[in-house]
Design brief:
single chain, Heat Shock Protein 90, Ribosomal Protein S5, domain 2, 5-stranded mixed β-sheet, 30% helix
Length: 625
Amino acid sequence: MEQIHVLDENTINQIAAGEVIERPASVVKELTENAIDAMATAITIEIKEGGISLIRITDNGAGIPKEDIPTAFLRHATSKIKTAEDLLSIGSLGFRGEALSSIAAVSMVELITKTKSAIMGCRYEIAGGTPKNDIEDVGVPDGTTFIVRNLFFNTPARKKFLKSAMTEAGYISDIVERIALSHPEIAIRFINNGRHILNTSGNGNLKDVIYQIFGREITSNLLEVHFSAPDIQIGGFIGKPLISRGNRNFENYFINGRFIKSMIINKSIEEGYKNFMMQHKYPFTALRFQIEPELIDVNVHPSKMELRLRNADEIYPEIVKLIHETLEGKNLIVEVKAEEEKVPAPLKREVTKTPEIFETKRREEKKDPQIQKIQNTKLPENLKNTKSQEIQKEPQKPERPVSSPPVLKEENDYRKPEQMTLFDDSFLSKDARTRTRIVGQVFETYWIVEYGEKMFIIDQHAAHEKVLFERTMKSLKAKENISQELNPPMILNLSLREGELVKKYHMEFARAGYEIEEFGGNDYAVHTVPYDLYKLAREDMLMEMIDTLADDGNIRGGSELIMERIASMSCKAAVKGNNRLSIREANTLIDELLTLDNPYHCPHGRPTIISMSKYELEKKFKRIV
């Protein structure tokens, strides 16, 4: 075993920096909070290459006195507190004295600062924790500028774990938005690679900041909230239930000007919306809490994004009650906006195949002589027009021959043991399919099929969902999908982070059939959609896809998620229960279902088909003891 020894100061600083500086967004957060503590009224954040090559934070705050500059970069050097007792009444965002030393330990830092009382400003450089020069006098305006270059230049192990520049810029954008929401009285400007992303006025109006970040749709559906008690005040806005998302990214709340994450507050917000919003949907909030400092403990984690609430039991019901009463007292009837009828434009690009309602998927080559003898069939039009679909014009289709019914492979070609537990091999064979008999439909939803000594019950909706899902996935993977132009285009009003996601996955959207371009401000125009989704081209469906990318895009890959989401959306075109089908339609559906590799479950995991043997049925009627 190695001898125990004390680490050198440089190694200690780099290890400590790992707790405070996880990525470029951490640098932006710490330096911007320092600017706020310095009473700045205007802050500019500029980054390049996701903040990896450059971060520049400029403020018009108090500045740092010349004699304090070297001390500011030492560990645990701070002007915010003097003793441990001060933590009980901390009012500043920073207090640990770790930020500057941690940033300087893993990057090249240039500081330019001037106090209001000084005649000249100062310039100081430090790289990897080592000063590069003495303090220089320079002519600069009041305030402070930090320039951070080459983050993690001396810790390559940390640098290789960073994401792409676009992803890191997204994390920074998220932090900047939260800071702007928590301090509407400060003018925040955010510049990414020379492009102005955000510019708030600093007039103190929270609603103006919400408009700048999230756009007009959310801003026009806000409800103001107020609550006051001796130890706590709550103010801000909550969104009407129609403003919902598939994740918690829109749940914004700030305690004493600090953006934090708290499961207690999350749950209290969602409990308040409980009877007003669908399950697995999350609301928009921008809530500002003022709580007596002695009731909270912010010294929980170096990132200072977690805290403990001493009176959490009292705060929880107050938040629930505030939200519930605000929603209960308002008219929440959703206004249905008249939509112009979509006029299908010529197809975006030509392909040899166009999807049909029940396009068959063959397991055998067309050269099979038996197939050539089968009469071509096409599913009747009435199956496409289900109750849940919008009444729209049918998009133009290129002419193509109608496909023939599927012929299934022989049982020896179908080897999936875990699936054979549901069906006998013979039921899946081409010969056996001709000997099945459709008995009829019950409850206008389930089809009963008799074969040999078994009875099979097929859910028409689940079966059609599975067929559409597999067909769409196959088309997308084979790049056989085509786009349909929207006339007029669909306009999306996106928040800054949603807009960045659309830009990040622009190529993936294009490959899937979506043509999306910026339309000015926070608006984006959707010019084309995948052909199969033409009648389902609705804003809420596309927003669900963007939410999914926000949650899982970095883990699973945007292209795969978009394909799966499109395929799932196509399931909404499936024939519903309580819609009667003809025998011919049911035969076509069953034929196509049984050509799939896994026909046993719909994309959501529900069974498409169940069975009961003659033996089991006779036991139920006591014919067999």
